[in-house]
Design a protein that fits this description.
The structure is a single chain. By secondary structure, the protein is mostly helical. The chain folds into two domains: about 45 residues; about 30 residues. About 85% of the residues lie in helices and about 0% in strands. It has three helices and no strands. The longest helix is centred in the C-terminal third of the chain and has 30 residues.
């Protein structure tokens, strides 16, 4: 399991590469998604107290609901 420093370092590196023009937008997007996937693995393996879980759930719900809605809208436009 990666620690937070490794995830933060990977994010800084991605942002720096994008700023320098080393990554096109789609590649940057895909690499951000990969970082998110790596982060999810770490979060799943983390043993956190219930009070922290309680604070995290609303953040996850907002993110998921927003992304699901946007994904559905994009899919709907592609079908027309």
């Amino acid at each position: 399991m990666k620690d937070a420093r490794q995830h933060a370092s990977a994010l800084r590196a991605l942002k720096a590469r994008r700023k320098k023009g080393e990554l096109d937008l789609r590649t940057y997007y895909h690499q951000l998604l990969q970082l998110l996937s790596d982060m999810l693995t770490s979060l799943r393996e983390e043993d956190i107290p219930d009070d922290e879980v309680k604070r995290q759930v609303p953040l996850l719900l907002v993110f998921l609901e927003d992304q699901i809605q946007k994904y559905a809208q994009r899919r709907s436009r592609q079908e027309h």
